[in-house]
Amino acid sequence: MSTPVSITTPPDHAPIVLAVVGHTNTGKTSLLRTLLRDPDFGEVADQPGTTRHVESAQLLIGDGPPALTLRDTPGLEDSMAVLDYLDRLVQPGERPDGPERIRRLLDSPEGAHRFEQEARVLAGVLSCDAALYVVDVRDPVLAKHKDELSLLNACGRPVLPILNFTRSPDSQAQSWREAMARLGLHITVDFDTVAPPLDGEEQLIARLSTLLDSRADTLRRLNEDLTEQRECRRRDALTCVAELLVDAAALRIRCDPDEQARTAATQALRERARNREQRCVHALLKLYQFKRSSYPDRVLPLEGERWGMDLFHPMALKAFGIQVGKGLATGAAAGATIDAMTGGLSLGAATLLGAAAGGLWQGAGQWGDRLMGLLAGQREITIDDPVLKLLALRQLALIRALERRGHAALTPIAPGTPDATLPEALPDLLHEARSQPQWSASGTAPITDERREQHVRRITDALAQAL
Ligand SMILES: Nc1nc2c(ncn2[C@@H]2O[C@H](COP(=O)(O)OP(=O)(O)OP(=O)(O)O)[C@@H](O)[C@H]2O)c(=O)[nH]1
Ligand SMILES: [Mg+2]
Known about the structure:
With about 475 residues, this protein is α/β, with parallel strands linked by helices. It has helices spanning about 30-35, 80-90, 100-105, 110, 115-125, 145-155, 175-180, 200-210, 215-250, 260-285, 315-320, 325-330, 340-345, 350-360, 365-375, 385-405, 425-435, 450-465, and strands spanning about 15-20, 55-60, 65-70, 130-135, 160-165, 190, 250-255, 335-340, 380-385. It contains 18 helices and nine strands. The strands form two sheets. It has a six-stranded mixed sheet with strand order 2-3-1-4-5-6, with helices on both faces. Strands 7-9-8 form a three-stranded antiparallel sheet. The chain starts with 15 loop residues before the first strand and ends with a helix. Bound molecules: guanosine-5'-triphosphate and magnesium ion.
């Protein structure tokens, strides 16, 4: 007779080991990708038997020690046959408990051959702290699922069902919850790995802690860290957008008054604005740990894709519900304003020039130079308000899309139009930035200017209200 299997509780500092299990092709590897924020973890494919070996990865608390070890496992395929075989391993008169029965399977020849795949999974569950049982809620609850749960329950570990594909129109999540309850599993988690809830990870960890009471403290700290990371990420993302807006609003290109020079300057302005927006997009993708390839390249205007529409195309403004004057909506020079440098002129060009010459006025260097240009007939071109508004709305839409996207998602990121309206304070803040051409860092090294930094913070605060 074999020795009883002991179920030990690991020391408090050891990472909590979670085995991710379930029928084949239900999204187990996808769950790991999303929890780890790693779109490259393991192999994912829409076919059974993609994962063949147990592969683990860890989640840390901040820079500290690992809190969780997540174990990806191959899919369960034939639980009914395994259950039958388990029965055959019991002699008349014996009453081995679940873990002992599983251990017998692992020690048996069939455990190394016919049921090799199931044995790998069950060995992983036997030595874990809890199992996350991933189900595809588009499937009806079938006998095979109940058999899988019988096998998992036999391992003597807590099992937390994870309801995947909950966003699918074919979701039968409610009947899964009811079926799980009938099997004694009263706690489940809705977690669509491609589009999880905003605080999906925290919900999952909170439910887990009700099953792992002895590790509740570690799970609480992990959850606090996850929340903090989420909030920091959002703040950093909004700061990226605020930086973009200051750069874009403050951007000015000076040109001679003739038509040709203006056209060239307008083109240059647009190019710099587009590149600056692209830099912001890349920064946001990096911050949320998505690959650049998951975001479609900018496509030409009028190819039918709303987001891909060029920043300066009038249709792009309309698509985001931005009201524009007739000229801007239809005109060739949409998005750029020929600016007469009002800031300087309102004080009187002559006075300023005099002051510049005498070096009496603080802004003489900056304004004097610009006014000299103006007097020589030059003009400045800036980005129009509606385009600045569009920039803000597009980036907010992108943040919303990234926050709602799981790292298991394989389809391209497609930000919609945000339902948020822009904060009332934004236009004034952008006008203020526009009057500070020295604040524009587009295309140059970052600028260190305390007033600019304060201004970026004010815009960040304003944008936070819009999300
Ligand atoms: N739409 C959608 N697709 C998903 C979701 N989760 C997984 N998928 C897709 O389902 C398929 C299977 O996902 P995997 O993560 O490979 O599933 P698995 O359980 O690890 O599969 P095996 O390793 O073969 O057992 C892939 O095509 C995924 O992209 C989801 O929540 N929503
Ligand atoms: Mg897999």
